[in-house]
Amino acid sequence: MGLCFSSTAAADSPPRPAAAGGAAGKRERSRGIVACGKRTDFGYDKDFEARYSLGKLLGHGQFGYTYAAVDRASGDRVAVKRIDKNKMVLPVAVEDVKREVKILKALQGHENVVHFYNAFEDDNYVYIVMELCEGGELLDRILAKKDSRYSEKDAAVIVRQMLKVAAECHLHGLVHRDMKPENFLFKSTKEDSPLKATDFGLSDFIRPGKQFRDIVGSAYYVAPEVLKRKSGPESDVWSIGVITYILLCGRRPFWDKTEDGIFKEVLKNKPDFRRKPWPNITPAAKDFVQKLLVKDPRARLTAAQALSHDWVREGGKASEIPLDISVLHNMRQFVKYSRFKQFALRALASTLNSEELSDLRDQFNAIDVDKNGTISLEELKQALAKDVPWRLKGPRVLEIIEAIDSNTDGLVDFEEFVAATLHVHQLVEHDTEKWKLLSQAAFDKFDVDGDGYITSDELRMHTGMKGSIDPLLEEADIDKDGKISLDEFRRLLKTASMSARIVQTPRGIRMS
């Protein structure tokens, strides 16, 4: 069921008109109105015919056709997506093409994204010249497998490549929004051919703190939050979770005869891990899929975290783990927290073991370029500069260092890093009993006399702060009895998690 919904729209963007090029486009042309695409100079090179020779048709969509082509100078074979300007009737269609080219440029050079060479135009068409992938779709290879299943090792190789694409997109402020097997091609027919993401037609940039409010994607792979009209980068990870489930067992995790039925399954039910072959699949693989198919996007693993999971790591090692936007987000948020919340997070961080911190260790190592065990101001600047939507300047980075640096040596060590980057909501949702034990242990570090409350004297003793401690207590002291209970302490910690960025927006759904 290859349902594909409307074009993209960010949280505070006006609703897009119905896609031009169909009946609406024909009516416009019949009235003699020149299509917007025909009136637009895209600013692309104008010498396509001189540089490339079109060959056989490879496929087609609503607005354009994809051909094999040959570079006249080098003889290299490429793929060319040719888009008819006459079908770009409305401005939104022009913007869609410009955005697709912008996205391909942003991801240029990534090993698992189809390589973008150049964009051209003439009076009638826009041409997007890309790497030619001749190994077929991932979907075809799945169907060709015995029982339509991959071995765990082969599945992990596939999933790792998709996660790398998602993580790279998210660092650029991009959400793919249509992760599915049909949108991944193999470079060649070789068994070990790299996988390439090829279709970014529904992808879009999203501003920090915003969400998409429209429903886009393919029915089998759509995330719950997309159906609730408040989605972001996390939806890509859900889709990869669905693909992983299919790779491992040959079935879809959510199924019904109708699209509405599929959506109800996605919103209400959990995947079945009891039927064969799941009893024979390793606990690590099952744990991985379960942590990707979490309905609450705040508790779902991020793409970078998923790459650190034991099941997907290459040979037990983390190979080229990209920076995690959620880690960078948490560091920025840490600056805004009250002093008590910062101390509480440090106490919680100290209760976790090395296995529970493996993904954060990978992130720390990715930022610690000189591998001396600490993160300097310059190293943090380099890391935060990779978070394209934010691009924090020097003074803000120094502010983050100063907030995280509890021992005031001007550097961030691993323990300080963990306190500032913990995904508290994941701790709460993944294992309730473990959360209770860890939060109790963190609470006990403050509750010196063990009476079940943190008093102002105990807080002063733990923090070493002088003067009135009352302002620190106030935030957590919900019942205003002058002391903090375990429940109040847990509630404070839970607020130090990525918020559910709910945006109230007009409702409206269009399908194409």
TrEMBL record:
Domain Protein kinase: 52-312
Annotated SUPFAM superfamilies: EF-hand, Protein kinase-like (PK-like)
Gene Ontology MF term list: ATP binding; calcium ion binding; calcium-dependent protein serine/threonine kinase activity; calcium/calmodulin-dependent protein kinase activity; calmodulin binding
Binding site for ATP: K81
GO annotations of cellular component type: cytoplasm; nucleus; plasma membrane
Classification lineage: Eukaryota, Viridiplantae, Streptophyta, Embryophyta, Tracheophyta
Location of this chain's protein in the cell: Cell membrane
EF-hand domain segment(s): 355-390, 392-427, 434-469, 472-499
Presence of keyword Transferase: yes
GO biological process terms, semicolon-separated: defense response to fungus; intracellular signal transduction
Compositional bias segments (type: Low complexity): 1-21
Name used for this protein in its record: non-specific serine/threonine protein kinase
Gene3D superfamilies in alphabetical order: EF-hand (1.10.238.10), Phosphorylase Kinase, domain 1 (3.30.200.20), Transferase(Phosphotransferase) domain 1 (1.10.510.10)
Topology in membrane: Lipid-anchor
Gene: LOC101784780
UniProt keyword terms in alphabetical order: ATP-binding, Calcium, Cell membrane, Kinase, Lipoprotein, Membrane, Metal-binding, Myristate, Nucleotide-binding, Phosphoprotein, Repeat, Serine/threonine-protein kinase, Transferase
Organism: Setaria italica
Top-level class of the enzyme under EC nomenclature: transferase
Region annotation Disordered: where it falls in the sequence: 1-25
Enzyme Commission number(s): 2.7.11.1
Catalysed transformations (reactions): L-seryl-[protein] + ATP = O-phospho-L-seryl-[protein] + ADP + H(+); L-threonyl-[protein] + ATP = O-phospho-L-threonyl-[protein] + ADP + H(+)
UniProt similarity note: Belongs to the protein kinase superfamily. Ser/Thr protein kinase family. CDPK subfamily.
Stored InterPro entries: CDPK_Ser/Thr_kinases, EF-hand-dom_pair, EF_Hand_1_Ca_BS, EF_hand_dom, Kinase-like_dom_sf, Prot_kinase_dom, Protein_kinase_ATP_BS, Ser/Thr_kinase_AS
